[in-house]
Automatic annotation (TrEMBL):
Gene3D superfamilies: P-loop containing nucleotide triphosphate hydrolases (3.40.50.300). GO terms for molecular function: transferase activity. Residues 57-313 form the Sulfotransferase domain. Keywords: Transferase. The keyword ATP-binding does not apply. PANTHER family: SULFOTRANSFERASE SULT. Its EC number is 2.8.2.-. It comes from Eruca vesicaria subsp. sativa. This is Sulfotransferase.
Amino acid sequence: SLLRDDDLTQETRDLISSLPSEKGWLVSQMYQFQGRWHAQALLQGLLLCQKHFEAKDSDIILATNPKSGTTWLKALVFALINRHNFPVSSGNHPLLVTNPHLLVPFLEGVYYESPNFDFSKLPSPRLMNTHLSLFSLPESIKSSSCKIVYCCRNPKDMFVSLWHFGRKLAPQETADYPIEKAVKAFCEGKFIGGPFWDHVLEYWYASLENPNKVLFVTYEELKKQPGDSIKRIAEFLGCGFTGEEEVKEIVKLCSFESLSCLEVNKEGNKLPNGVETKAFFRKGEIGGWGDTLSDSMAEEIDRTMEEKFQGSGLKF
Ligand code: A3P
């Protein structure tokens, strides 16, 4: 599992022993490295990835905070860039029989779970995803001309999505953790994968400074205007569209309704790391946080968001 520490190298153990650590929700101990709080396993993935990953100019990296639309973005961009090999309307599209996480490798996850995985064998253009901060990306991703598509989501929805996902993933570890405490830690940034705010802002400013390198999209705009968002992504990746019909077909194939009903995404199907594919499909809505957060918790996140995003032009 990506949350355990059974397979750490001595190098990781040595590094970890020198890092600031905190008790947290979901993982009992988190470690601060390059400004973010990590579980041990993904920290090792990060280190190996920084050391060994060699980006190519043609690579496409999907970057997200967890629970911000990763699965959806993987499906959309996979369908988009492969639409000539795998016509979307063909009826035997890979997405109909494979969970998106198995079609698009998770960089630091693979480096932890299968350090011998050969990234050079992936078909070109290579499509991969990461939760790493912009700062922590392997140098070659930053210095090459590879493209980064970043997807962000309203923090209240993202938090609530992670809250439910985490409780499914580690019921025992999370059972007694009060949600008020988790909200506070999330806002303060002392939260697994956090600070959420800095992750978003780093990519946001990079997208403004270097629009050919980083494209910033939101879960909300994908939901409200999926066609326009896909065209924007296609243009950014240099594979613009000719037909409206094709756009509509991609939107439909990758919709929550379509993917979540497939046999491969139903009960009983697991990723190699043991996580049920079904866990990646819960509600798929904007503003669903209301059933989990109290008014005061929502206000706390809103207040933090206003403070952190003030002056950035970023809004939810
Ligand atoms: P909810 O828990 O709010 O339902 P990630 O893929 O980054 O792990 O994020 C998971 C979130 O995206 C979950 O949100 C999940 O339901 C939602 N999701 C997954 N596939 C989706 C799709 N095709 N369209 C819209 N939302 C999707």
